[in-house]
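ok so I'm stuck.
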Amino acid sequence: MRRERVFRDRSNLLEIYNNEDFIGRFRLPKEAILSLTDELAEVLSPATSRSHSIPAVLQVCTALKFYATGTFLNAVGDTVGLSKASVSRAVYRVSRALSNKLPQFPNHLAELNKANIKRQFAAMYGFPNVIGAIDCTHIVNRKHVLSINVQVVCEANMIFTNVVARWPGSTHDSFIVVHSSVGNRLEAGAVRDGWLLGDSGYPLRRWLLTPFPNPQSAEQMRYNDAHTRARSVVERAIGLLKCRWCCFDVSGGRLLYQPKKVRQIIMACAILHNMAQRNGVALPPDLPYLQHEEPDPHPPPQHERHHQGARIREEVMQHF
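replied:
not stuck anymore, here's the structure
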């Protein structure tokens, strides 16, 4: 005889918790969850008329709970009323659906030409013509054996404008930027008047300004101080990303998935991070804020002198 199927109680999570508790558990307010569900409903809704299918909103909440805690799938399932297998499928479907929304990242760089990005950096940090701050961070998966070196570019308000999550952890930051679409397009002149800010591990270019390696004058020191203040926004953004989505943090656990799935989760969490920032969603008060301090595992390469980049850096130095 066939064993009778047992369906867990799937209570409406939107009705159980108030908005503050909901943000604490899922990191986004209910309105944002419903808006996100509407965007993904066509992909997440089952192509069947059978009963007891998992609603799209529950799949979204399940994935958010996993991203927010990084805990075991069966523990997530106990919270949302799903089996471990159903949680795994929900995380995969939502991650894939969100990662396919990559066009919202301005890979075409049109967004980077907007003057308000430069105005924000100038107003907050006093650094002119900045179109973004760039850095890399490691995301570990498969029981600490493999990692992905993730490159991010962010605005002054800690919103990511570009994310590259396809290079192994052994790849140096400077290699990633010159082989990324952002680096190639900026090198080709996609943005004529503006530059990224990167640390000393990056190569100096006309579109990528780095600090003076050995400042000798007061002007160079003032430039380095202003550069550090402006570039630090990307470190805070990475720290906020890992604090909001604890699946990336050591305290929350590691992503025990193959690299392809990890890349999808990274991109999904970056998009959700942007949603939270645009909606002004603060972190729950009981979460410690993580300052990103992740030194590159390799010594920075010796970059050849880039004359145009050096000239622009000298001109910017006069601003301070």
